[in-house]
Amino acid sequence: MSYRLGIDLGGTKIEAVIINELFQVVKRERVATNRDDGYEAIIERISSLSKSMLSDYDAFEGPIGICTPGTIEAETGLLKNSNTVCLIGKPIQKDMESQLGIPVLMENDANCFALAEATLGAGKKYNVVFGVILGTGCGGGITMLKNIHRGSNRIAGEWGHNPLPWTNEEELNQNSCYCGKSGCIETFLSGPALERNYYQKTGKVTSAKNILAISQSGNQCAQAVFDEFEIHLAKGLAQVINVLDPEIIVIGGGLSNISRLYYNVTNLWGEFIF
User: Fold this and answer.
1) What's the pTM value of the predicted model, to 2 decimals?
2) How much of the chain, in percent, has pLDDT values that exceed 70?
3) CB neighbour list of residue 195: distance below 8 Å, 6 or more residues apart
4) Which one, of 69, 57, 82, lies nearest residue 2 by Cα?
5) Which of 6, 22, 59, 272 could serve as 65's disulfide partner, Cβ 3.0–4.6 Å?
6) Cα(34)–Cα(157) distance, rounded to whole angstroms?
7) What is the secondary structure of 205-266 as a DSSP string?
């Protein structure tokens, strides 16, 4: 039986899985990304994790598949547009192949997510799929007829770096984004954005998971944070629907586990869809 190794390089964690030819997970490990440690440290973590995963698979010849926020520029081989900013401008694919001695394939994480859902998941019955990642950042990927649509600049689907629509000037100016602009959708619709909103309302630092639990206990501030998150998500996705009109939108990432989003957001976005 043949096996494949895939690695998800996220802003919070690096997770690796080995799957068999039936797409069954046979091994899984994860480590913290620790972005503040810098580029070389992240490369070393991916390399060590890969070697650990493959310790029982001597015959493995690759390639390894790695998905990451951002995209590899075809002309230069350098990564661009990553919210893990220490990776920007680095030859990450070349460096990983040098470290591991086997071929490495790299693709934008949201593109990988959308393709997986379009071929094996919730979108497999549909021709046009928009895949959304709500996690450390806010990414998006598009598949058409089960093929990734990258666009000529490889930025197709990057809805997170448009301004949040149907909002006020104060909201747009108050949220600074790592890309150098203010008011990007990602500054409203990510885990850190949700946590920042709660801190601004309460002065307390806690995780999105804890804020959800607090809201479910009846806390009004926590409930207000999620009410705002849902209206922002409805506006952001309505803009995507008006442009792309996908047959299905599939949500992944850590915040996709919040079940109230699926009912509330679909009830809200009708106000904004053309």
Assistant:
1) 0.91
2) 100
3) 205, 206, 207, 208, 211
4) 57
5) 6
6) 26
7) ---HHHHHHHHHTT-HHHHHHHHHHHHHHHHHHHHHHHHH--SEEEEESGGGG-THHHHHHH
Q: Is 109 strand, coil or helix?
A: helix
Q: How many CB atoms lie within 10 A of CB 39?
A: 18
Question: In this structure, are strands 147-148 and 104-108 parallel, antiparallel, or unpaired?
Answer: unpaired
Q: For every residue of 151-214, which 3-state class applies, written as one string? A: CCCCCCCCHHHCECCCCCHHHHHHCECCCCCECEHHHCCCHHHHHHHHHHHHCCCCCHHHHHHH
Furthest CA-CA distance within the chain? 58
Residue 32 in 3-state DSSP?
strand
Beta strand 248-252 with 128-134 is parallel
Instruction: Look at residue 208 in the predicted model and tell me its pLDDT.
Output: 94
Per the rule left: phi > 0, alpha: psi between -120 and 50, beta: everything else, 65 is: beta
Cross-strand pairs, 134: 138
pLDDT recorded at residue 13 = 92
Matching residue, tokens 């802003």: 11
How many C-beta neighbours within 10 Å does residue 62 have? 16
**pLDDT number for residue 61:** 83
**Which stretches in the chain have pLDDT values below 50?**
none
Angle at the Cα of 57 from the Cα atoms of 52 and 58, rounded to 5 degrees = 105
Tokens of 95: 């460096």
Q: Is 63 left (phi over 0), alpha (psi -120 to 50) or beta?
A: beta
Place of tokens 């480590």: 31
The CB-side HSE value for 117 (13 A sphere, CA atoms) comes to: 28
Q: What are the backbone dihedrals phi and psi of residue 155, each rounded to the nearest 5 degrees, phi first? A: -125, 10
Burial label, 249 (beta-carbon count in 10 A; 0-12, 13-18, 19+) = buried
